[in-house]
Amino acid sequence: MLALLPLGAPALPLDEAGKYVAGAYIVFVLLLVIYVGIMATKLQRIEKELRDVANIAEERSLEDKAAPGRGPEGSSISDSLTPQGSRGGGA
Amino acid sequence: MYGKGLKPLSIATVVAFAVGFSLVFFYAPLDADQGFIQKIFYLHVPLASTALIGFVVGGIFAILHLRTDNNKWDAYSYVAIHISVIFGVGVLITGAIWAKASWGHWWVWDEPTLVSFLIVFLLYCTYYPFRYAIEDRDRQARYASVFAVTAGAFVPLNFLAVRMAQQLVHPRVFATSEGGLPSSMLLTFLVCFVAVALLWVTLVKFELTAKSASGQVNRLRRALDAPGPTGSSRIAPEVS
């Protein structure tokens, strides 16, 4: 289907002018790709941080279970990991 | 919930670009004066308009931040300026390509439109080191907002000054003494403008969603009393 598209198009002057037009549009696409690449790196970093936090939470939870009489401080940390406690109040 | 509506917005952006670029290459007639080179304008002009409007929008968000002292607006302002600067890079490169094809030079220093856009772009490039220079987050946000308001007010003034300049070597898209664009070109231009504007909104939302996710992770970290991550940004405002 895509291969048929140029047939319906007017004769595109892909000489000197076409080179520049193609260049401009390629630059735009490249900018977008670079931006998406940077955002992908950021998301990977967030994912890694989230994994670290989840690991810490799990370790704390295991510690709490191992030492049940640790007092209120320990339990408040695990409480903060319940869906209500960790839910963000983002605007 | 910054990510709400991101999916339909992304789809709308892709559809708008597909329609816009199809119109550019299969519907809009060749310009009698410039020929095929004029096709660059369907990308260059919407990018420039959106970038300039984005700078002004960043200033409006900054006003809201100064009025309410809510850091959410600082994040909005930062992201609006950030995306507009990226669009600005696109404007300068596509403009330079058009200038080379049309005038034979990559850059012309005595053309007010080019130089004024470069000044605006460089002004906003100083926004990052300006933020980076201030350690305290609250002061950083306040000073950055003052910068965004001042620079945002400069953008329309600059635009008007260029329009009133005598030298009109740079082509005008709308409302010239010879008349405006023919309807087919105008329709193509408007669709491309909508597509680029939608892209700006999508990227702003995308960036805010990423910042919000990062902020939520930091909140969790603080709740757990866990050590902070290494190499986190000092200039980007945090959204929770």
Descriptive report:
Chain A has 91 residues and is mainly alpha-helical. Helices cover 74% and strands 0% of the residues of chain A. Chain A contains four helices and no strands. Chain A has helices at 5-8, 16-66, 72-79, 83-86. Chain A starts with a helix and ends in a 5-residue tail after the last helix. Chain B starts with 5 loop residues before the first helix and ends in a 16-residue tail after the last helix. Chain B has 240 residues and is mostly helical. The longest helix of chain B is centred in the last third of the chain and has 42 residues, at 183-224. Chain B has one domain. The A-B interface holds A 5, 8-10, 12-13, 16-18, 20-21, 23-25, 27-28, 31, 35, 39, 42-43, 45-46, 49-50, 52-53, 56-57, 60, 77, 80-81, 85-86, 88-91 and B 1-2, 21, 25-26, 30, 35-37, 39-40, 43-44, 47, 70, 72, 86, 89-90, 93-94, 97-98, 100-101, 203, 206-207, 210, 212-217, 219-221, 223-226, 229, 239-240.
